[in-house]
Amino acid sequence: MQEKNILEMKGITIQFPGVKALDGVDFSLRAGEIHSLLGENGAGKSTLIKCLTGVNRMDAGKIILDGKEIAPTDPGNAIELGISAVFQEINLCPNLTVAENIFVGRQPMKHGQIDWKEINRRASELMSRFHLDIDVTRPLSYYSTAIQQMTSIARAVDIQAKILILDEPTSSLDENEVQLLFSVMRELKASGMGIIFITHFLDQIYAVSDRMTILRNGHLVGTYNIDELTKVELVTKMVGKDMDVIFSLKRSEVAPDAEFMLKAEHIGDASKIHDISVNVKKGELIGFAGLLGSGRTETAEMLFGATKTVKGDIYVDGEKILIKQPFDAIKADIAFCPEDRKRDGIIGDLSIRENIMLAVQSRKGFMKPMTKQEQTELANKYIKMLGIATPDCEKKAGELSGGNQQKVILARWMAASPKVFILDEPTRGIDIGAKAEIQRLMLEMCGQGVSVIFISSELDEIIRCSNRVVIMRDRAKVTEVDGASCTQKDILKIIAEGAA
Amino acid sequence: MKKQTLWTRITNPKYIMVYATIGIFLAIYAFGAFLYGDKGFLTVRTFVNLFIDNAYFGISAVGMTMVLITGGIDLSVGAVASLTGMFIAYGTTVLGLHPLTCIAAALVMGVGLGLLMGWVIHYLNVPAFITTLTGMFLARGVCSLISRESIDIKHPFIDALAGWKIYLMKYVDGNWVKIKPIAFINFNVILFLVMIIIGAFILQRTRFGRNIYAIGGNEQSAALMGLPVGRTKVLVYGFNGLCSVLAGISYALYVKSGWNLSLQGGELEVITCAVIGGTLLTGGVGYMAGTLFGVLLKSVIPALITFNGNLLSWWGKIATGLLLLLFICIQRFVVTTSDRKKGQ
């Protein structure tokens, strides 16, 4: 490895409305190294990459490429400067052929016309370098996601950039394809290219990178050589230290002979989750721990019918039910508070009252509308009970703060008196006081006999509230531990190393 | 390396829509030949007349195809073509200008409006539907401002251009003779075919053309691949403006007059030609060959009705509507099956 820095980013700051996505982050990349960029979702990895590729403008900071200060204005400009990127979502055109996707924008020309023969010949060569023997003249949409991903990598490689950015390139590849990609990465590295590699698979980071830089909440945690940190240390640094806030929360007490309220046996969906079994007793709170992408959300969405369950059985209160769509789950008294509250949860243009009455109304059926008075009574009851900060129930839900929006969603489902309540990251992005209140509300519901599934990236919360903790890793359940006796360190170790 | 044979090239799934158009055109043509073959449906004249009577739609469809491939739409083409006719009619008949001067003015107007609309669509991020609707009202308004009555075009240059024709000949006993019944092609037909060839060249052989497809496939991806999205979109609407003006000239030659209410709804006919030619309204897919056959397919239906002689011409509209529905269903089917393939 050479010691020369090919890229230096200094004090990068990017401000989005309301949040600092990046705050004074430094990053450097050497020629001929594979440098992993790590952090949880929202830590600022993608923002940093988008800044480097000219998608986002930085508000402060400097980018120095090969000793010269640059300011990429758009992706085209970044490519000209020698920065080429492969993004997690496949950024290609499905209607163009594989060959054309590799060469569009820089097609070889002959007599003032595009030289299709040359394009197809060179594309075939490139793809066979990835051991893919395919007809490159077929449209990209004709092929699997893995081949599409390989195509976008082939494009980036063929541009012969100085810097290659691979943002989650392996998420759709199988083990062999990943190994293939790694060997190509090592080849490129040997040729002096600097590679920035982003992945949430920890094993892959250790398999291929030389150094790593960790970000958390838009701040730089540090840059380390790969042998400097163990996996456990790495995860600890990514997730962050405990907040020094002590909540006076007590775990729910579950009667030893309590019945199982929800039983899911060997369920799996069409693509991501293959086999998972979970059960929750009456009044019990189960925590789901694991990194993002470990399958927590996918499992929750299956239980609620938001994604289709293709195998396995689900029992609610001892009765086997078929959940094909959220409506079936609602009928079976399952409630779901989704991860992305702005997109999937709250209806911003409706008032608090209308948001709260939705689930109750949906269960009653829309043929029997509630009177406005009933609605207002219901809304006011929950506004008072949950302490939603609002002058009255007619305020638009979109105008509330994140924590209060979350409470409105909780109120919506609590009003429908569910038997099972699934909460996916209910405390993300809200301040510490509101977090504590949400946790208190969950535990109160448990006390009233509701079974709760609580998904969170913050382990301290999980440990504080859960009776049992289900640990997920790489889209499968690794193990279950007892909430009262486990420590954060135990869980981190299992998340990092995959064994109990 | 996978060997490409002629067979794999022909069976490439990207051509499905074009094959569907050609297939249905041939089927309808065969149907017409079966019913009215004895009345002269099979003659060269009938076939050539399909071009003569619809050249102006075809010329406009060349530009429209490109706009639709980017995933956009342009509702102003009928009004712009009509305005071109008004420019020529008013300019020559009332102001006494040479038609070429009028055409030059119309080109500046049409291309300028196209570029402006493209700029508004991309840089101000206004939906194409709304922007070009505005353009349509604007152009139509100016038409009526110029004159609210039909103006005849009487100018030797226009007469010469409109009257110019090449008779189709055949070689009989060492002599070239006109075929019977007499069939000819005129300036409009040649302009239409030349525009189709230019359009096909742009789409298939230039980077600009390929960028059009890339934008239609996924605009965000195109931008991330470093393609000049904004420039391409603005130029596509500019080119479509050019096509509208040429279509307007062609129409003026066809009817030899300018009328402020001519070609009302023409934009929809043009879009229909492109769509039944296999151009996807969602963008990313379309071929000039398809558009050529789309124009023929749309024009063969009124021809059939004329040959029947008993049916009201409104049946043509109904048939066109059914055809459009059929093609949209085929498109849905093709798109969903290719999505399903992806899962494998």
The global form of chain A is: elongated
CATH fold annotation of the largest domain in chain A: Rossmann fold
Shape of chain B: globular
CATH architecture descriptor name of the largest domain in chain A: 3-Layer(aba) Sandwich
CATH-assigned homologous superfamily of the largest domain in chain A: P-loop containing nucleotide triphosphate hydrolases
Rg measurement of chain B, Å: 21 Å
What is the oligomer described by this structure? heterodimer
Task: Outline the structure in words.
Chain A is α/β, with parallel strands linked by helices. Helices cover 35% and strands 26% of the residues of chain A. Chain A has helices at residues 45-52, 75-81, 98-103, 116-129, 145-158, 175-190, 202-208, 231-239, 296-304, 326-331, 341-345, 352-364, 372-386, 402-415, 432-447, 459-465, 488-497; strands at 5-16, 19-30, 34-38, 60-65, 68-70, 83-86, 109-110, 113-114, 163-167, 194-198, 211-216, 219-225, 260-269, 276-281, 285-289, 309-316, 319-321, 334-337, 420-424, 451-455, 468-473, 476-482. In chain A, helix 8 (231-239) packs across helix 17 (488-497), helix 13 crosses helix 14 and helix 14 (402-415) packs parallel to helix 15 (432-447). Chain B has 344 residues and is mainly alpha-helical. Chain B has a single domain (16-336), classed as ABC transporter involved in vitamin B12 uptake, BtuC. Chain B has helices spanning 6-10, 16-36, 44-69, 77-94, 99-123, 128-146, 156-163, 187-205, 207-217, 219-224, 229-255, 266-276, 288-308, 314-342; strands at residues 151-152, 165-167, 169-172, 175-178, 184-186, 257-258. Chain B has a two-stranded antiparallel ribbon with strand order 1-6. Chain B has a two-stranded antiparallel ribbon with strand order 2-5. The model of chain B has no long low-confidence stretch (mean pLDDT 90). The chains are: A alpha/beta (500), B mainly alpha (344). Chain A binds chain B through residues 53, 55, 74-80, 85, 87, 90-97, 100, 104-105, 107, 109, 113-114, 120, 124-125, 128, 133-139, 141-145, 155, and chain B through 1-2, 4, 8-9, 12-14, 201, 204-207, 210-211, 213-214, 216-218, 220-228, 284-285, 338-339, 341-344.
